[in-house]
Write a structure and sequence with these properties.
This protein is α/β, with parallel strands linked by helices and 339 residues long. The chain has 13 helices and 15 strands. A hairpin with a 2-residue loop joins strand 13 and strand 14.
């Protein structure tokens, strides 16, 4: 009899890990939250207590979770510098893997992860959630159907509200910096929407708001110019200081029309004061992509049940990382970099 329920463990329940654990526990059909592993045991205990998940097993070592033979797959939501070892261990344990973006800090680590995944033949979904947002999915469909003709220029942006990231996330040696940690979302979205690969990268970065970024060797404002394989052009913009909220979007200019995806709304509320319209815009990534975070987990579980590839594979994760690292190289060497 075919398996009907996928038993999952979540590794890391800080930040986005809490979102994933909640979705697995309460919203993902055909999935059961079996266990949580976190080096901060209190974080796991507090999550389980808050949601009255008395049957969930807690580990403070992910290796112990991977030894649990009842677990079919894992959701990995740990800091970037830890992911290589955890992904490889999960693959070698025969667990299917949902891993939060970015996949790795460098291509050597990514390639080693790929080798273990291919050897063990486990499913891997990399959590670039914009692929699972309704607007992005509809845009991709419209482009593939030729509704805007040939893609000529595509612009994608990520604009984060203050304050700057803290702890390991602020250090590019541990997080990959804004290019890897944030802009790989945009690089992945451009590949997903257009179906085109990036051939050349040129990037510039400035540190205008956060002196700490300058000390650590990162940038709070970045522009990345892309040449696609068909010679279409792309532009990716990052701002780490957006006082009006969390702003992401895309504009695709084609030979027959264009598509715009805006920052979205937290709700349908509009406050009208004279000639001024005030919209209820998202203040963080959870508000903007709440449905997408659920949809990617639904895809992960379905890919296991139906033995198919998920929408965002480990190879997609590697491609986004490759573009980001080329952008780092471009900034450092002040020249375009060919992929």
């Amino acid at each position: 009899m075919a398996k009907e329920t996928i038993n999952l463990g979540v590794i890391g329940v800080g930040g986005i890990g809490r979102v994933h654990a909640y979705n697995v526990a309460f919203k993902v059909k055909n999935a059961q939250l079996m266990a949580i592993a976190d080096v901060n045991r209190d974080a796991a205990l507090n999550f389980v207590k808050e949601y009255k998940l008395n049957n969930v097993v807690i580990y403070d070592d992910y290796r112990k979770l991977l030894e649990n033979g009842n677990i079919d797959g894992v959701v990995i939501a740990t800091p970037t510098f830890t992911k290589k070892d955890i992904v490889i261990a999960a693959a070698d344990a025969g667990k299917h893997i949902f891993v939060e973006k970015p996949l790795a800090l460098n291509l050597n680590d990514a390639d080693e992860m790929v080798r273990h995944v291919e050897k063990q033949r486990v499913k891997v979904l990399v959590g670039y959630q914009r692929r699972y947002d309704r607007a992005y999915a509809l845009a991709r469909e419209a482009i593939s159907q030729g509704k805007i003709g040939a893609v000529l220029i595509i612009k994608s942006w990520t604009r984060d509200p203050p304050p700057m990231p803290q702890g390991w996330a602020a250090d590019p040696k541990l997080s990959g910096g804004r290019l890897v940690d944030s802009l790989t979302h945009d690089f992945d979205a451009i590949r997903y929407l257009t179906g085109l690969e990036v051939s050349t990268v040129y990037a510039e970065g400035s540190t205008l708001m956060y002196d700490k970024f300058k000390e650590l060797g990162d940038y709070d404002h970045i522009l990345v110019l892309l040449r696609m394989a068909n010679d279409a052009l792309g532009l990716v913009e990052y701002s780490g200081y957006t006082p009006y909220g969390y702003d992401t979007g895309v504009e695709i200019h084609g030979s027959k029309g264009k598509i715009i995806i805006g920052m979205g709304l937290r709700s349908s509320l509009i406050v009208i004061q004279g000639a001024n319209y005030v919209y209820d815009t998202p203040t963080n990534w959870v508000e903007r992509y709440e449905d997408a975070y659920l949809n990617e987990l639904l895809d992960f579980v379905d890919s296991i049940l139906n033995d198919r590839e998920p929408r965002c594979t480990i190879y997609d994760g590697r491609k986004a990382l490759e573009v980001a690292l080329a952008a780092w190289k471009s900034i450092g060497e002040k020249r375009p970099v060919n992929l």
